[in-house]
Every structure is written in C-alpha cells, then in structure tokens.
C-alpha cells in the first residue's frame, strides 16, 4: 500500500527544496504506521490527504521565507561581486549616467515645450492670425490695423472671439524710485479668448477700453508677488505708470504665461491713437483667436481671407493683395525652437543608444567571463531558475544605483540648461520658467535601460544555463565567439552613432565660428547700452530734445567714458521700424523699402561705424535747418547705384511728407539677425525727428558691464523719475542674439554628448580588443615561438578592433550626411561643399580615438611572455 | 531572552514537544506528540513551518540525516530555546498568580 500519488506530488511541488524530501518522508513513514495500527487503508489515505491539504498554507509560508532569504543572500553576493570588479562597476555606472542623464534632461525640456499643452482653456482651439500681402516677397510682420481687426471680428463665421495685443513697456513710479517693466496692451476679450480668469479682482470690460476712462491694469502673478509682496489689498488701489495713475483691477493666476510676450508684467487696455484707430494702413498689433468647436485652421483661414479681399475696395493701394495666415498658437509660440529641440532630442537619443549598446557589450562580456562559473554551478546542481534569478539580481544591483544617479543628474542638467538660457529666451517658450524633470522622460530612459539590461544581463545567463551541460566541451568556445561577434556589432553601432554626434558638433563649431566672425558693422567691445523712455509729462519735441541733450552731456562727463549717443532701435535688435520711401525725380514712382532709425549726431563715432562717403550728422543739423538723412552702403548700392549724395527722398510715414536730402553713406550695420541678409537702412538725425524713447550707447575704456550704476545715476541726475532699463553690453547683445545663442546652446549640448559618446565607444572598443587579447594569449605565445615579431602581434591585435571600427565609421559617415541635413537650420557659412570636409574631420577624430583604444591592449599583447602563455591552462 | 523574542502559542507547543523527547527528534514524532497530548489535529506542514521559524530564532538545532534510507531532519533544543521556554512559563505564571476567574468555568 502506497500513499496517494497525487497528494505526494502536490506536497513535492509545494514545499521548498530544503523541506520537500523530509516532509514527504515523515508523512510516508507515519502513513505506514497508520496502516499497521488501524489496518484501514482507506482511512490512512484520507488521513494523508487531510495532512496534505492542511499543509498547503504552511508550505507556502515556508516558501516566502525561503525566497526572501535567497534574494537577500543573492543580493549580498551580487554586491560583493561588484565590489570585486570596481572597474566594471564604474564603467557601467558612468555609461548609464551619461545616457540616462542626457536623455532625461533633453526629453524633459522638449516635452515641456512641445508636448505640454499651453496653460489656457482648450488650447487646441487657439490660433494666431497674421495679415499677409501675397505680392510681397519678404515676410511681413503679420500685424493688423484696427479697422482690419474690427472687420474680421464682425464678419467672421469661424471664431468665438478675436483678441489683439501689442507689446510695450511702462515705468512703475514709486515715491523714491522708478523701474521699467514690459507691458502688453490688449483688447477687451484677450483673457476671455485665452480662457484665463484673474486669480484676484476682475478681467477687462468694455468700460476699461475708452481713452477717457481711468487707466486700469492687471498685474502678472510674479510681479504682484515680487514687486508688491503678494498684497491682496492692491486690488482697487492706484499705482503710477509712466507718470499716469492706474487702478489695479486684477492679478493673473500663477500658472499663466504668455510666451509671445514672455517678460510682460503689466496688462493694460489697448488704446489706439486717433491715427491708429482710423487708418486701415497702420498695422500695429498682433491677433489671436479662439476657433468655434469643429472649425479647422484651413476653414478659418479661408473665411478670414475672403474678408481680407474685401479690404481692397476700401483701400486699393495697400490692401489689394491682403490675405491671412492662420497658425496654431502653440506652433506660433514654439516657432523655430521646434527644430532645435528635435535636433537635441535626436542627439540625446543617439547618446542613450550608445550608452545602451555599451551597457549591452559590458553585460555580454561579463556573462562570457562567468560562463565557467555558471557551468560549475549547474554541475553542482543549481537549477536554471536559480541561475536566472541570480543574474537578474546581479543586473539589478548593478544598474539600479547607476540609473538613479543618471535620473538625478538628468534633473540637475535640466536646471543647468534652464539657468544657462537668457531670461528673455526662456520666457519666450512655454513652461520653461518653472521647469521640472518630466516623469515621462524619466520613464523613457529607465525603460530603455532596463530593457537592455534584461536582454543582455539575463538572456546570456539563460543560454549559459542551457548549454552548461556541455561547458567543458567546445560549446564554451563557440558561445564566446558568438558573444564576441555580438559585441563587435554593438561596438560598430556605438562608433557609428558617436561619429554622427562628433560630426554634428564639428559642423556647429564651424557654424558658430563663422557666425561670430560675421561683422555686425560696429565695434561691440567697450559699449554699454540701455533704453530710456520719457514719462507723459514730456509732451513736446523740444522737451525731448532738452532731456536728450542733458542726458548725453551727463553721460559723456562720466570717468573713462569717451562718448555717448542714441539710436531709436539697437543693431541686432530685429528689423523693427520699416517704411517705404519715394525718390525725388524717380519716374517709376515705385516705393522702396528700408529700415528707419533715428540717431544722435555722435552715434557713428561711438559705435565706430565707418563713414563711406559724404558726411554724417553734425550738431548743426537743427530742427530748422535743411532736413538730412544718412543711408547705409547697402541702400546706396541697391537703390542709387552707389551715388546717393544729394538725392532727395520722402516717406509717407512722416506727416506732411517733407523731402529729406541724403548727405552721407555709412558702413552696413546689422539690425536683423546675424544669419540674415543685409537690409537697406535710412538714418534720421534725432534733432530733426525727436522721440520720447531711445536707446543710449556709451563707449568706455573700462569694462562696460561695470558702468550700469553710474549711467543710471547720470540719467536720474537729469530726472529722478526716468529709469534706465534693458541694460546690456553690446558684446552681450551680439553673444546672446538668438541665432548665436541657439547654435551655441545646441553646440554646447552636442559637444557634451559627442565627447561622452566618443568615450563610451572607446571603452566598448577597448573592451572587445582586450578580451580578444586575453582569449588569444595562447595563440600569441605560439606565434611568438614560431618567429612572429612583437610588432606583428600588436598589428594583429589592432586589426581585431578594425572591422567594427571601419564598419561603424562607414555607417557613421552616411548617418552624419543625413544628420547634417537635419542640422540644416543651424548650419551657417558652410555652403554646399563645407559639410563633407567637416564629416571627414570628425571621422579622423573618431579613428584616432579608436586607434588609441586598441593600442592599449595591443601593448599588453606585445608584452606576452611566450613560455608563460604556452604553460598556461 | 535570546534573539527570538516572545514565543507564539503554537511555537511554544512545538518547542515543548521537542523538549519532551529527551533525545533528538524529527517532524513526525513531534506531530504525533502534539496530537496525542492536546487532542488537536496538527498538519505536518505546520510543524515544519514552525520548526523553520524556531530554527531561525536559534531555539532548535537541526541536523540533516540521510542515512536511514531517506532524508530526515532531527531537532534538538538549544540553550536559547530552554531560556525562551522558561521565560514564557514565568510570564504566564506571573500573570496567573493570585488570579481567580469567575463566571463560566472550564468545560471538560
């Protein structure tokens, strides 16, 4: 009589290894005793079943205890293993650190800018509306005139509401001081269009809009917090803005941002001048709209374009070709940065892939090295599950801290990235003012790493467990050769990706260098600039001129200052004011387009813009004297065939359209961005075209950055209620101008990634070459004995790394060519033939690195002692 | 007391069963001892799970023996086990000391 077989089987499955035989043995023994004593086999069988069933829960409890102990023992073992190979652990940690940190940081920034919805209600229905002129080739600003806006708002079928806004700045006057802040003037429905409600107080209403109503202002949350100490009683109180009292009617919520005017602190009602209100031809503000549900961008565009065609009837001269462009607001805000962020994501992705390939190679080499150990363990009775559990734990112990470190470093990198961005550029993109690491970015990096770790950490162990039976035979050699091949592939991939990154960095270095060597047309060194806006109290051109003259006199009197001057809009500050002009005696009567700038008499001297012919402005050019202008070389050549002196022009923007005589030609200053074409410029003398706001430039022999305080004091010495703002050195303006900054930012990250990728690829290559040296020690010994020179041996070793290097380089060169196309938007001054040489240079750098990585193990191979090598094993 | 801490009721019973056998003993004997003395049905699994715990606490000392034709694990009480049993008894004695329970008395 035997115990019930099924019950026994259940017991054997349930109890852990250590207990299984003992428990079943005891029960079997007692079962026999039962039968002997009671002589009832059926009763004994029932008893046996009862015992089995009642043992299920205790057995499971034992298993859990057992499992926990194994895990903690294996973890300790794994940690000990890692401590015994600190080099391996360090390399894996660094690999993951680079890859994970880069990917986490870059994807965080990109996700914030590109993926996170704008902080408005249903942001998908918000669009930007630009009025265009289908005839003009150069892009127009897209601004609307008030009559155009009113017609669009009244006649459209596609929008719930339209809103206009126009940027500016205001002085906040406090009893003892004053400071200048950015402001935005908005139409009544602006916040309602965005779907934003003030945190405190109220939104604008139609009662706030007329110029006769008391001025009301809504504060940005940060302004309210920092400048007014989060004082809730501000609502309803009056503050003084540029000399005019304004009632604070609301405070915006903390989440609100408007990247198209990112630095704005004050929100005011849009109040047009009489001319702005009446003229269809004065385009002066930007427009956004909220689409009706279900209306597409194209439908909205067609709708508005049809309305725009109607403008021609009213104003055939300027509106004959009026049309409209409707763009997603999110798209409009992100603009060119989209390409840049995608480039960075691609670069970080490359680095993460290199890191993953490197990790895979490292784990494979480790599995190969420990195949022997696995074989022994299997021979000693370890089961497959145990081997797999062990390798899982080892991999986890290895990568977990490294990954944590990488994620942490990623967070740190995000902060670094954001801190390195100039505030104005940061504010111009959504969600960057208070950027956090994106959990999705962390998840992507972590999942990629874990997947690679599982694949290459655990799968080899699995295979080792399967083949371990034959570990003493040829299986080991074959397996290691297969692993070696896999690792060569991985190194090839690393080299290809590293080459792409190095090429990208090389192309950007050249672009930035070329861009920086583009002459801005003036000498930016030693010049401080700032802006001044006179309060409403100054009402006449005479008052402006008097302040202007006194201010320049004060500034020129400062120690170490060699001269000061003013200009309406600074170089590299964008196209800014632009107007059509007519030439006296031109039979065609076709207007030409030029940038218009108003400068003081000393401007060209202070900025060291050379005079090409004729004269520049004199102090003797007074309001009452002959009206004169200076033009730049570009205009002189393109419009007057190089002989403009004495010609007369007139501009419809000036009331009365007087004639202005060209008296001189100066060198070309760049007003638009450095990477754009030069534009024609007409300069007017301040004396004959005085304005209440201007930029001051001060040339000093000292460091211009230290001049800010004394300049501020000099201006407040003329009028204490006139603050200076936008204080920057011209060198800063050049260095931080968007085309330079963008490329520099991408270059900085790309170089970082390229160096990391290069280092990782070198480590990967070093790994396979030195492993092949170890595996071939015996062969090297034989060869040496047979008369091979040590040089031959070194060459053979270097060759073993050559195949993956060359294969990787070929793929990498092709990849770099494709990558260069992706970088196109950032390349500058390279021309058609400029890219290939830079890729060649990058390939050289890579091959040199690869050579060094192979030479180190080759030197070791050269030192092999043939007798030792043959005696080994 | 040793590193084991307080003894649970079944732990105490198993430990006492080990203690009652003057020489080393194994699972089946312990199970039978408990069943005979308490009249309670006890599963072999529960006995081994408890012995495993007691072993972890250092109250019993196991010895593996494969000579009898099958695997057996013999247990003896350790000095720590003796201390633990005495401590449990003392605690109970102190709690019972001078106590008379009223109402429903013991059945059986």
Question: Would you kindly provide a written description of the structure presented here, covering whatever features stand out?
Answer:
The complex is a heterodimer of chains A (873) and B (108). Chain A is α+β, with helices and mostly antiparallel strands and 873 residues long. The radius of gyration of chain A is 38 Å and the shape is elongated. The two termini of chain A are 56 Å apart. In chain B, helix 1 (9-20) crosses helix 2 (27-38) and helix 1 (9-20) packs across helix 4 (79-96). The mean pLDDT of chain B is 84. In chain B, strand 2 and strand 3 form a beta hairpin. A three-stranded antiparallel beta sheet of chain B has the order 1-3-2. Classes of the chains: A alpha+beta (873), B alpha+beta (108).
Compact summary:
The complex is a heterodimer of chains A (873) and B (108). Chain A is an alpha+beta fold and 873 residues long.
Protein traits:
heterodimer; A: 873 residues; alpha+beta; six-stranded mixed β-barrel; six-stranded mixed beta barrel; B: 108 residues; 4 helices; 52% helix
Q: Which residues of chain B sit in consecutive blocks of at least 5 with pLDDT less than 50?
A: none
Order of H and E elements of chain B: HEHHEEH
- The count of DSSP E runs of length 2 or more, i.e. the number of strands of chain B, is 3
The low-confidence runs of chain A, each spanning 5 or more residues with pLDDT under 50, are 470-478
Helical coverage of chain B, percent range: 40-55%
Give the total of beta strands of chain A. 21
Number of helices of chain B: 4
Q: What is the alpha-carbon Rg of chain A in Å?
A: 38 Å
Distance between the termini of chain B: 35 Å
Summarize the main sheet of chain A: 6 strands, mixed, barrel
- Indicate the percent of residues in helices of chain A: 40-55%
Shape call of chain B: globular
Q: Main sheet of chain B?
A: 3 strands, antiparallel
The backbone outline of chain A, from C-alpha atoms, is: elongated
Instruction: Kindly report the spatial arrangement of strands forming the biggest sheet of chain A.
Output: 2-3-8-5-7-6
User: C-alpha Rg of chain B, in Å?
Assistant: 16 Å
For the largest interface, the chains and their residue counts are: A-B, 23 and 20 residues
């Amino acid at each position: 009589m035997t115990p019930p077989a099924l019950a026994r089987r259940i017991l054997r499955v349930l109890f852990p290894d250590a207990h299984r035989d003992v428990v079943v043995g005891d029960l079997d023994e007692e079962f026999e005793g039962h039968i002997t004593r009671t002589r009832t086999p059926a009763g004994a069988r029932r008893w046996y079943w009862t015992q089995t069933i009642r043992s299920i829960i205790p057995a499971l409890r034992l298993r859990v205890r057992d499992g926990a102990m194994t895990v903690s023992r294996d973890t300790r073992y794994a940690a000990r293993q890692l401590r015994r190979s600190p080099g391996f652990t360090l390399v894996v940690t660094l690999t993951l650190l680079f890859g994970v940190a880069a990917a986490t940081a870059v994807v965080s920034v990109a996700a914030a800018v590109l993926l996170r919805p704008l902080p408005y209600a249903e942001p998908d229905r918000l669009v930007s509306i630009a009025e265009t002129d289908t005839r003009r080739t150069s892009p127009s600003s897209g601004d609307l005139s008030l009559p155009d806006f009113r017609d669009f708002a009244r006649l459209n079928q596609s929008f719930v509401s339209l809103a206009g806004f126009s940027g500016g700045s205001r002085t906040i006057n406090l009893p003892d001081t004053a400071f200048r802040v950015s402001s935005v003037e908005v139409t009544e429905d602006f916040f309602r269009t965005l779907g934003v409600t003030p945190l405190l107080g109220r939104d604008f209403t139609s009662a706030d809009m007329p110029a006769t109503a008391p001025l009301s202002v809504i504060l940005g949350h940060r302004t309210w917090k920092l400048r007014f100490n989060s004082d809730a009683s501000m609502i309803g109180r009056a503050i003084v803005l540029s000399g005019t009292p304004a009632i604070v009617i609301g405070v915006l919520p903390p989440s609100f941002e408007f990247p198209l005017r990112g630095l704005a602190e004050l929100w005011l009602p849009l109040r047009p001048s009489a001319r702005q209100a009446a003229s269809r031809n004065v385009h002066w503000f930007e427009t956004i709209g909220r689409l009706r549900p279900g209306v597409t961008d194209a439908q909205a565009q067609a709708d508005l374009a049809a309305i725009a065609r109607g403008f021609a009837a009213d104003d055939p001269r300027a509106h004959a070709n009026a049309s409209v462009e409707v763009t997603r607001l999110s798209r409009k805000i992100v603009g060119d940065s989209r390409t840049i962020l995608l480039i960075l994501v691609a670069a970080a992705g490359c680095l993460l892939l290199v890191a993953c390939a490197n990790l895979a190679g490292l784990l494979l080499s480790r599995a190969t090295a420990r195949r022997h150990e696995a074989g022994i363990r299997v021979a000693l009775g370890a089961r497959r599950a145990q081997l797999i559990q062990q390798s899982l734990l080892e991999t986890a112990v290895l990568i977990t801290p490294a990954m944590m470190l990488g994620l942490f470093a990623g967070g740190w990198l995000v902060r670094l990235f954001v801190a390195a961005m100039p505030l104005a550029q940061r504010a111009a993109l959504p969600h960057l003012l208070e950027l956090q690491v994106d959990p999705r970015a962390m998840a992507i990096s972590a999942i990629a790493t874990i997947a690679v770790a599982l694949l290459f950490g655990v799968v080899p162990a699995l295979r080792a467990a399967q083949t371990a039976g034959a570990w003493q035979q040829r299986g080991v050699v074959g397996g290691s050769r297969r692993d070696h091949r896999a690792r060569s592939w991985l190194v090839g991939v690393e080299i290809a990706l590293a080459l792409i990154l190095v090429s990208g960095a090389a192309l950007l270095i050249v672009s930035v260098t070329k861009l920086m060597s583009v002459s801005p047309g003036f000498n930016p060194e030693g010049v401080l600039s700032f802006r001044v806006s006179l309060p409403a109290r100054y009402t006449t051109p005479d008052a402006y001129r008097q302040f202007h003259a006194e201010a320049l006199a004060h500034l020129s009197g400062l120690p170490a200052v060699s001269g000061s001057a003013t200009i309406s809009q600074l170089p590299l500050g964008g196209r800014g004011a632009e107007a059509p002009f007519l030439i006296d005696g031109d039979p065609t009567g076709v207007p030409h387009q030029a940038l218009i700038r108003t400068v003081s008499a000393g401007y060209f001297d202070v900025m060291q813009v050379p005079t090409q012919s004729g004269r520049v402005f004199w102090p003797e050019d007074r309001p009452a004297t002959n009206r004169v202008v200076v033009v730049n070389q570009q205009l002189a050549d393109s419009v007057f065939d190089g002989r403009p002196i004495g010609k007369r022009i007139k501009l419809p923007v000036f009331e009365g359209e007087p004639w202005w005589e060209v008296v001189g030609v100066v060198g070309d200053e760049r007003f638009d961005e450095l990477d754009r074409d030069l534009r024609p410029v007409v300069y007017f003398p301040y004396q004959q075209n005085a304005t209440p706001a201007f930029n001051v430039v001060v040339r000093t022999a000292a460091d211009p950055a230290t001049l800010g305080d004394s300049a501020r004091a000099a201006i407040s010495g003329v009028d204490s209620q006139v603050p200076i703002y936008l204080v920057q050195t011209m060198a800063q303006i050049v260095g931080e101008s968007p085309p330079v900054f963008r490329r520099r930012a991408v270059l900085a990250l790309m170089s970082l990634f390229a160096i990391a990728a290069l280092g990782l690829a070198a480590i990967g290559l070093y790994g396979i070459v030195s492993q092949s040296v170890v595996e071939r020690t015996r062969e090297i010994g034989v060869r040496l004995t047979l008369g091979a020179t040590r040089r031959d041996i070194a060459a053979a070793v270097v060759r073993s790394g050559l195949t993956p290097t060359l294969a990787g380089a070929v793929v990498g060169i092709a990849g770099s060519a494709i990558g260069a196309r992706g970088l196109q938007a950032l390349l500058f001054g390279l021309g058609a033939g400029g890219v290939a040489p830079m890729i060649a240079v990058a390939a050289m750098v890579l091959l040199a690195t690869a050579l060094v990585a192979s030479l180190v193990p080759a030197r070791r191979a050269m030192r092999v002692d043939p007798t030792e090598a043959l005696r080994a094993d | 007391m040793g590193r084991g801490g307080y003894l649970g009721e079944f732990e105490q019973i198993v430990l006492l069963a080990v203690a009652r056998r003057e020489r080393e003993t194994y699972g089946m004997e312990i199970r039978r001892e408990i069943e005979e003395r308490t009249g309670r049905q006890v599963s072999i699994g529960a006995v081994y799970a408890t012995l495993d715990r007691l072993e972890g606490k250092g109250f019993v000392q196991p010895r593996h023996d494969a000579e009898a034709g099958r695997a057996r694990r013999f247990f003896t009480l350790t000095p720590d086990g003796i201390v633990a049993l005495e401590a449990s008894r003392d605690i109970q004695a102190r709690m019972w000391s001078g106590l008379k329970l009223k109402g429903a008395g013991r059945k059986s």
